[in-house]
Structure formats: C-alpha cells, structure tokens
Amino acid sequence: MDIAAFKRDFDRALARVLDRKMEELEQLTRDPYILNLAKHGCTLALQGGKRIRPYIAYITYRAAGGKGNVMGVLVGLELFHTFALVHDDIMDRGMERHGVATANRLFGDAQAILIGDLLFNWASEIIAPTKGQPIFAKMVDEVILGQMLDVDAIRRARVSDQFIQDKMRLKTASYSFIRPMQFGAALAGKSAMYRFCEAFGCPLGLAFQIQDDLLDLTASSKKLGKSAFNDVKEGQKTVFTQYASRKPANRTLLNKMKGRKLTQEDRRRIKQMFEESGAIEYGTKLMKKYFREADDAVKGLSDVKAKPFAELVAYIKSRAN
Predict the structure, then answer these.
(1) Are 239 and 283 in contact (CB under 8 A)?
(2) Going by CATH, does the domain composed of 133-315 fall within 1.10.600.10?
C-alpha cells in the first residue's frame, strides 16, 4: 500500500475514533462552546497532514510480519502529533496550519493548551494497552527534549553544531521516523528490526528536517501551507543559519530580521544572503548525503520488504511542502 492509499484508509479510521470521542464528551457536557473547543482539535487532526508517522509505522509492521489491522492503534500516533502541533503553535504564535486557524488564534492560549492535553490523553488511551507503549514513552521524552532545545535556541545568540544535530535527531529523526518505525515493529513483536529502524530512520529524518528548513527559505507560503521564512523571523537555528552565521555580517542581518514583519525586500535580502554565503549549497549537499544513507540502508532488505521504504524516500525527496 502506497502512502496515498494508506492515507485514505487511515483518515477514515481517524474520523471514526474522533467521532467516538466526541460522542463520549457529549455525555459529559452539553455546553456547545466547550464541545466546539474539542471539535476544533478533531478538525486540526483531520485537516491536511502527510500521515508519515503512522505510515512508516504501518510499513514497518508489515515488513516485520504483522498481519492484523492496526489502523486504530496507529491513530494514536497522529493524535499525539496533533497535540504537539497545537502546543507548538502556542509557543510560536502560529496563526494557521493547513488552511485552518490554530487553536490559540481562535480560543486563546489557555484553551489551546487544554485542547492539546485532550488530544494527548486520547493518544495515550489508545497506545497504553499495546506492545508499542514503551517505544511511545521514549518517543514522547525525546520529542519534548527536542522541543526544549528548539525553544531555547531562539534565546541563544549562538549554538554549537552538536546542538543543531541533537535538535534535529530528537525532534525529527527520532520522533518522525525511528520511533514510529520501532512502534510498528513492536506491534508485530519483532524487536530484531530495531537496528534497521535506526539505520534507515535516522538519516531519513535528518534529510527530512534539512529539507523542511530549505523549503522555508525557498518555497512560497501558499505551497508550504504556513508562513515562509518562519525560522528567520523566529530566530531559529538550522544548518542553514549555522553555516551562514560564520560571517559576522550575516549574523547581524539575521539578528535584525528576528521578530520583524518581513517585507518583500527583506525576503529578497535574506534569500540572497543564504545563497551567496554558500549555506544553501552546503545544506543541500548534506541533505542529499543523508538521503543516500537512507537508500543504502534499504539495500539490506529483500525486494518485497524494501519496496515501500524505497518509495517513501522517493516521496519525501519530491515533496514541496
């Protein structure tokens, strides 16, 4: 099953779970405003999203010999991801995601926190009774630690290359690829696949994050589904800002743009700076290196097992948002 077919089946399973949870909430309160808060959390979960985490868990489950229908369990991964996005939008003052107003924009920070908490509880309720729970617990620890690094990076004038690597590994490689894969393997009872999950998931996740940061600098807001140049406005640290900041003049420009409402001229200057500094070329080469490592990891699998993983790498390489 390719990711498009998976997404259709998965979204139906996700909608069924969310309908059931809303029915349960309606037994607790009839207040329309409060129910609307919870409903918006459901809308955010259903709207857009690539479903990469449940998909990579699914193909690993199948590669590990799993035969059952695990869609309902994999919904837990996506609900946790929606929780993380809701809280991320609060921290970043996000206004829109996939064309939908963020919870904090509509209802304020306090209610947005609670919407996120509700989604986290639903995810935990689904995953707790499964063989994947210990992996899920590790994933939660790692992504929260990665987010701590991410948040603290904004207040630091400079960070080390190791800091950037740790942030990408914890917040993206482990959270979006390694642990979801190991979650799928755990559901199938095949911990022997954990090493492959590391060998494939780590470089693919690093490539994915660098690609994400590159798109933030080169793609339009319309294609991204969110504001472009977000990392620069927030003062975020990426492999691109790290490389460009080796020159004091570039550091000065980045500091000047932090927290600013960017004009078209600002955007032009920023993009030109990243190009002329060699940061775009450097980051692109690093991204391609990690993609090659992911491709190489797949070569150790049989053709049948390798196919969905190879297709996923190709899919991610071609993404525009």
Answers:
(1) yes
(2) yes
Q: What is the rounded CA–CA span in Å between residue 144 and residue 87?
A: 11
Report whether 196 contacts 300 (CB < 8 A). Answer: yes
Q: What angle do CA 298, 14, 40 make, to 5 degrees?
A: 125
pTM of the model: 0.93
Please provide the CATH number assigned to the domain covering 1-130.
1.10.600.10
CA distance 175 to 81: 9
Q: Which two tokens stand for residue 127?
A: 């995953």
Q: Which two tokens stand for residue 218?
A: 């080169």
**pLDDT confidence of 16, banded at 50, 70, 90?**
very high
Angle between helices 303-317 and 3-26 (to 10 degrees): 80
Identify whether the C-beta of residue 120 lies closer than 8 Å to the C-beta of residue 137: no
Pinpoint the alpha helices (H) of the chain: 3-26, 32-46, 52-63, 71-92, 103-107, 109-127, 133-155, 161-168, 179-187, 194-218, 221-224, 230-234, 239-244, 248-257, 264-276, 279-298, 303-317
What mean pLDDT is reported for the chain?
A: 94
Q: Where does the chain hold its CATH 1.10.600.10 domain(s)?
A: 1-130, 133-315
CA–CA separation, 111 and 117 (whole Å)? 10
